[in-house]
Design goal:
alpha/beta, Aminopeptidase, Alpha-Beta Plaits, 2 domains, 14 helices, 15 strands, globular
């Protein structure tokens, strides 16, 4: 096997396994800068082949190829998921992990570098959450950290987790259920955003379920009394959930999508109808309680219409468990580096994107972070925000939450796109290969690598993070929100 290393002023240098260049860079910022061309190219390549949950074959393969070329040993098919993998390098010492993603979103195809809606493939996929950057940036941090440890002779192991299906699939939760994160001492992650900030946030736990009603078909005019309408049941459930909203916790959410109406013939009593429900709340216990109430509404709708109902869990994820010790480490690294430094072209394109946004989009971004908006709003937020005085409550969900119940986790957001750009929008896809996106990714990699090195070289910090984590877990032990009986989504057959 060949291990790949780097030395100052040189390209890739191949050496036999176990032999390292002791004169390699030891400063992680310089290592990241030296390594970054290949990983920026990887990010752009993954942007160009957007794949949906559990189908990220090309994206996963591209990451694995680079990691193996860099000397990492790769374990494939983690948790029985073909696109999940773990790459490891190093020996002895603690295990520090980097979490990477690479899945895209449906219906967000968009040409890069254009400040107007212009799909490359009408109805096609697009990287509307920046996971092309997320995975490549975490890989860059992992390789730079490995090279730093090797050059300094510091014992320790680096693991990169290739995590599929964050978007609507909870890939990390299935991986956590299978024990994939066992033995990890701490983990770092990041996300492209409009601001440079540590994420001291509580995300929403959630559960997503398929609800399927089955009835009896009949001629809607000649013999309607013989029919039992599954569509009626689905509509009654929707009404029941609407009335339930008044009696939910304030920050809870219930979203739905009708995925099958039972056909397009109004003269037939529909014998099948299906919807996908996504239930969220700040705490997993609240989610499960609300899930039971929504299930009762579904069963009541079936009772009223003399149909049957099947409720199948699709996926779920836990809320984030904050680790203040690791947050402080990452905050210190962000402030030390100082930001990514945008150029005039970055600012110009960001301003063009901002012209396509509503003013309230930008104002909402400021409000989320508790920042007073001034008269002059920059197109790109270059500054590093101070650590918030209190935890934020992010309105979304992430399966990083389940990792945070397995090991201490910290995350940062770095400015990769115009201030106010909504996630899951064509505007974000358009900026996915921009200079600002690249600079934000490199800034994130430097922050994560620097944070990891601090833990390796300051064992007391890692001990403090572990103690904080274990104290919280003792109070509330982790229970995976996906029961062992729930199969992986890609293995399931159609419900009808």
């Amino acid at each position: 096997m060949v291990v790949v290393t780097r030395s100052e002023g040189a390209g890739l240098v191949s050496q036999q396994q176990g032999v390292r260049d002791v004169n390699a860079f030891v400063d992680t910022d310089r290592l990241v800068d030296d390594l970054k061309p290949g990983y920026l190219d990887l990010s752009d390549r993954i942007w160009g082949m957007p794949e949906l949950r559990y189908r990220e074959e090309k994206s996963a393969a591209a990451q694995i190829e680079m990691l193996e070329a860099a000397g990492f040993a790769v374990t494939r098919n983690v948790a029985g998921i073909p696109t999940a993998f773990v790459a490891e390098a190093g020996t002895g010492g603690p295990v520090i992990a980097f979490l990477g993603e690479f899945d895209a979103l449906a219906g967000l195809s968009q040409e890069a570098g254009v400040a107007q809606k212009q799909p490359l493939d009408t109805g096609g996929n697009g990287h509307g959450c920046g996971h092309n950057l997320l995975g490549a940036g975490a890989m860059l941090a992992a390789v730079a950290t490995r090279d730093h440890l090797a050059a300094k002779g510091v014992p320790g192991r680096i693991r990169y987790f290739g995590c599929p299906a964050e978007e609507g699939g909870s890939g990390k939760t299935f991986m956590a259920r299978d024990g994939a994160f066992a033995g990890v001492d701490a983990a770092f992650c990041w996300h492209p955003a409009s601001f440079n900030s540590v994420i001291p946030a509580n995300s929403l736990a959630n559960i997503q379920v398929n609800v399927r009603f089955r009835g009896r078909a009949a001629h809607a005019a000649a013999s309607p009394e013989l029919g039992r309408s599954a569509l009626d049941a689905l509509e009654l459930m929707s009404v029941g959930v609407q009335y339930l909203r008044e009696h939910m916790p304030e920050k809870a959410r219930v979203h739905s999508a009708i995925t099958n109406t039972g056909g397009v013939s109004p003269n037939v009593v529909q014998d099948f109808a299906e919807a996908l429900y996504l239930i969220r709340s700040p705490q997993l216990s609240e989610v499960m309680a609300l899930f039971e109430r929504v299930s009762k509404v579904a069963r009541g709708a079936a009772l009223m219409t003399e149909t049957t109902v099947e409720i199948e869990v699709d996926k779920a994820c836990s809320n984030l468990l904050r680790n203040a010790t690791l947050d402080a480490v990452m905050q210190g690294e962000m402030e030390r580096i100082g930001g990514s430094g945008f150029d005039d072209d970055d600012v110009r394109f960001a301003a063009e994107i901002q012209n396509t946004l509503q003013p309230q989009d930008i104002a909402a971004m400021y409000h989320m972070f508790g920042i007073e908006q001034g008269a002059e709003t920059p197109a790109l937020a270059a500054q590093v925000l101070p650590a918030p005085a209190k935890d934020l409550a992010l309105p979304g969900s992430t399966d990083v939450g389940d990792v945070s119940w397995q090991t201490p986790v910290a995350q940062v957001m770095t400015a990769c796109h115009a201030l106010g750009t909504p996630l899951h929008s064509w505007q974000l896809v358009a900026q996915g290969k921009s200079g600002a996106a690249h600079r934000g990714m490199v800034f994130a990699a430097k922050t994560m690598a620097g944070s990891a090195v601090r833990l390796f070289e300051s064992p007391e910090l890692l001990d403090r993070a572990r103690q904080e984590f274990e104290a919280k877990i003792r109070r509330t032990p982790y229970v995976c929100p996906i029961d062992a009986t729930v199969d992986l989504p890609f293995r399931r057959t159609s419900g009808h």
